[in-house]
């Protein structure tokens, strides 16, 4: 439980700092990276400050060194090659540290209607789940939940933000 | 009269019985030459004079002023009436007990005149009475008198406005109604969402949930003081019923997978909703008496936002089974579905008009959202609004006005409620204390 809580705290803190600085989208994405969400950028070179300090097998290790999230194209839920690379690393890590159960949170950007985006978020979470299961992760460890468009991490209304919000985030919980 | 505590199952019945005492002073059968034609494409609003109601007894002057102001605001917002500025009135005091001096009103080019009075009766109640006059013929068109608890003065005002609207347009009014919606507060990334209910003009806001859970898409029961909605609780979407009188909340169908997008059938006995099966969402009905679940669709797609036709025989819904979101019609018992939307872009959140003649929807095309209407056979598509985000239409009970939410976009933006009539010209923001989304219009309360 405690690791799950700390995951949430880190992401919340990242958002708060960005908000206080009145940061635009580009800054915000930097802040998220520095705040420890290595997966948020997802473009390589993601090891921000403190990455080396993460204890192997910890939630921080998962976030910073593996990447906790994958991104999707507009109105799509298929796992593209970039997402597949991250999910491969997630599967490898999750198969090594089998003490964790986890939830995959599926999200949509704001350019869809409310009900549809709940369905789309579920579809994305399920796509990530199915991929991990295909890489040997036990289905019984995985819960999925859709947030639809209700929980954006990037707040502006252009593609720099939408592309960060179309995501499936693997959130570690039990151990 | 405590509306929430004492009203029986049939909405508003006791209130009406207690309210309407008499039709006032009909001296001659009213000839209805005076009429707003609501079926024309654009409407020239009818000029109407509504002098401040006179007081009486120990009723505070403020009360009679407030009543006439609410009536004026209702009629003005409808877009069908143009209330004149009271400062132009030569004869601003018009007690309903006398026939107005029409020579004072004809030069103002007003066509209709409302005279009224609010009096304290001495037993703790108020008496509100009004008369509607045709200025040119000098005839009374209608008149009524109500007794009520002073706390209900807003409802009395809305009922009077409905009655004027109905007399002059030939259509039922929609002012004595409620809106249930989602109140939104906090930053865009971590919104707190609460269910709230208010009068259709934004007055008397009450909050129905605490904000602990994300709540979306509340919908009114057509018969009872009850709503259904979806909420995210413990990492799962569930569908609930909420009794507005008792405050009692009930989880309906504790499904293993997420349940969302509920809506009542016209007889109030069934809820149609989406249930998630893996990556797909399909439509089901849940009989509220037997708790029997019936599957309506079985396709590898997102089937959601179902809505019954007013006769209960058909369901319109959105599905991306053909590649992207489009509107489909099927029998209320399921089976084959027929696509009805064929324009450019995506079509979502269909809502059937209470009159049965149109279906409103959310359209997305070219990076914009809009609210539109289409006939159930797929013809006559017409867009009424557009913008960055215009979403989630709901019909006024007379099928003439839609409410929806609009978000201009941007990092600090949030949604607000708007109404638009079927002409598309009369768009009005509906005041709410905070950001607001997912409105649902109640049936008429009386």
Automatic annotation (TrEMBL), chain A:
GO CC field: cell outer membrane
| GO biological process terms held by the UniProt record | cell division
What are the UniProt keywords, alphabetically? Cell cycle, Cell division, Cell outer membrane, Lipoprotein, Membrane, Palmitate, Signal
**Entries under InterPro entries matching the protein:** Bact_OuterMem_StrucFunc, OMP_bac, OmpA-like, OMPA-like_CS, OmpA-like_sf, Pal, Pal_lipo_C
List locations, semicolon-separated: Cell outer membrane
As given in the record, the signal peptide range reads 1-18
Query: What is the first-listed, main subcellular location in coarse terms?
Result: membrane
- Domain OmpA-like: from-to ranges: 59-175
Report whether Transmembrane helix shows up as a keyword of the record. Answer: no
Q: What does this protein do?
A: Part of the Tol-Pal system, which plays a role in outer membrane invagination during cell division and is important for maintaining outer membrane integrity.
NCBIfam families found in the cross-reference section = Pal_lipo (TIGR02802)
Q: What family does the database annotate? A: Belongs to the Pal lipoprotein family.
How would you summarize the oligomeric state and partners of this protein? The Tol-Pal system is composed of five core proteins: the inner membrane proteins TolA, TolQ and TolR, the periplasmic protein TolB and the outer membrane protein Pal. They form a network linking the inner and outer membranes and the peptidoglycan layer.
Q: What is this protein called?
A: Peptidoglycan-associated protein
From TrEMBL, chain B:
UniProt KW Electron transport keyword? no
Q: Which InterPro entries match?
A: 6-blade_b-propeller_TolB-like, Tol-Pal_TolB, TolB_N, WD40
Location in the cell: Periplasm
Query: Does this entry carry the keyword Transferase?
Result: no
Task: Kindly give the HAMAP family that the UniProt entry links to this protein.
Answer: TolB
Q: Which residues cross the membrane?
A: none
Record domain TolB N-terminal: where: 34-141
Which terms are listed as keywords in the entry? Cell cycle, Cell division, Periplasm, Signal
Q: What does this protein do?
A: Part of the Tol-Pal system, which plays a role in outer membrane invagination during cell division and is important for maintaining outer membrane integrity.
- Oligomeric form and interacting partners: The Tol-Pal system is composed of five core proteins: the inner membrane proteins TolA, TolQ and TolR, the periplasmic protein TolB and the outer membrane protein Pal. They form a network linking the inner and outer membranes and the peptidoglycan layer.
Q: Highest taxon of the source? A: Bacteria
Where is it mostly found?
Answer: periplasm
Q: Where is the signal peptide?
A: 1-32
Instruction: Identify this protein by name.
Output: Tol-Pal system protein TolB
Any one GO biological process: protein import
Q: Name one GO cellular component term.
A: periplasmic space
Q: What is the species of this protein? A: Faunimonas pinastri
Pfam families assigned to the protein according to its UniProt record, in alphabetical order: PD40, TolB_N
For this chain, the family text in UniProt reads: Belongs to the TolB family.
Question: The organism's lineage?
Answer: Bacteria, Pseudomonadati, Pseudomonadota, Alphaproteobacteria, Hyphomicrobiales
């Amino acid at each position: 439980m405690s690791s799950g809580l700390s995951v949430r705290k880190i992401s919340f803190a990242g958002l708060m700092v960005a908000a206080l600085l009145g940061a635009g989208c580009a800054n915000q994405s930097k802040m998220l990276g520095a705040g420890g969400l290595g997966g948020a950028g997802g473009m390589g070179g993601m090891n921000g400050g403190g990455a080396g300090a993460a204890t192997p097998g910890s939630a921080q290790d998962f976030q910073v060194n593996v990447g906790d999230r994958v991104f999707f194209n507009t109105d799509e839920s298929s796992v593209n090659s970039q997402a597949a690379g991250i999910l491969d690393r997630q599967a490898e890590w999750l198969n090594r540290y089998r003490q964790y159960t986890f939830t995959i949170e599926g999200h949509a950007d704001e350019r869809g209607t409310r009900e549809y985006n709940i369905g789309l978020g579920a579809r994305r979470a399920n796509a990530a789940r199915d991929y991990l299961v295909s890489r040997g992760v036990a289905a019984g460890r995985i819960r999925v939940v859709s947030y639809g468009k209700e929980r954006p991490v990037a707040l502006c209304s252009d593609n720099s933000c939408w592309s960060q919000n179309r995501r499936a985030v693997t959130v570690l919980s039990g151990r | 009269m405590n509306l929430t505590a004492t009203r029986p199952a049939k909405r508003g019945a006791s209130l009406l019985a207690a309210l309407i005492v008499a039709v006032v002073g009909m001296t001659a059968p009213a000839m209805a030459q005076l009429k707003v034609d609501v079926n024309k494409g654009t409407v020239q609003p009818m000029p109407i004079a509504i002098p401040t109601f006179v007081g009486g007894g120990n009723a505070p002057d403020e009360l009679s002023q407030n009543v006439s102001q609410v009536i004026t605001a209702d009629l003005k917002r409808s877009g069908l009436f143009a209330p004149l500025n009271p400062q132009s009135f030569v004869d601003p005091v018009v007690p309903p007990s006398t026939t107005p001096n029409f020579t004072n009103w004809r030069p103002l080019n007003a066509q209709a005149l409302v005279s009224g009075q609010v009096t304290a009766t001495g037993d703790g109640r108020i008496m509100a009475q009004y008369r509607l006059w045709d200025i040119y013929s000098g005839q009374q068109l209608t008149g009524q008198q109500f007794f009520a608890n002073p706390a209900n003065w807003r409802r009395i005002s809305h009922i009077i406005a409905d009655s004027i609207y109905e007399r002059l347009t030939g259509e039922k009014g929609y002012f004595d109604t409620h809106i249930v919606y989602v109140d939104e507060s906090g930053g865009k990334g971590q919104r707190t969402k609460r269910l709230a209910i208010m009068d259709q003009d934004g007055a008397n806001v009450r909050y129905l949930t605490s904000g602990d859970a994300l709540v979306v898409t509340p919908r009114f029961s057509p018969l009872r003081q009850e709503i259904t909605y979806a909420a995210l609780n413990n990492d799962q979407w569930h569908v609930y019923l909420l009794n507005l009188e008792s405050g009692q909340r009930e989880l309906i169908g504790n499904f293993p997978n997420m349940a969302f997008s509920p809506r009542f059938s016209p007889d109030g006995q069934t809820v149609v909703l989406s249930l998630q099966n893996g990556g797909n969402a399909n439509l089901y009905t849940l009989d509220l008496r037997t708790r029997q679940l019936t599957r309506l669709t079985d396709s590898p797609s997102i089937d959601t936002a179902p809505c019954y036709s007013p006769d209960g025989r058909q369901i319109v819904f959105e599905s991306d089974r053909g590649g992207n979101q489009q509107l489909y019609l099927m029998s209320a018992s399921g089976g084959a579905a027929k696509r009805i939307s064929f324009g450019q872009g995506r079509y979502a959140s269909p809502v059937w008009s209470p009159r049965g003649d149109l279906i409103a929807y959310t359209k997305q095309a070219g990076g914009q959202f809009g609210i539109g209407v289409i006939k159930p056979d797929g013809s006559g598509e017409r867009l009424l609004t557009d913008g960055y985000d215009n979403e989630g239409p709901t019909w006024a009970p007379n099928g003439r006005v839609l409410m929806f939410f609009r978000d201009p976009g941007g990092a600090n933006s949030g949604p607000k409620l708007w109404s638009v009539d079927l002409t598309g010209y009369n768009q009005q923001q509906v005041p709410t204390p905070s950001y607001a989304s997912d409105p649902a219009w109640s049936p008429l309360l009386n």
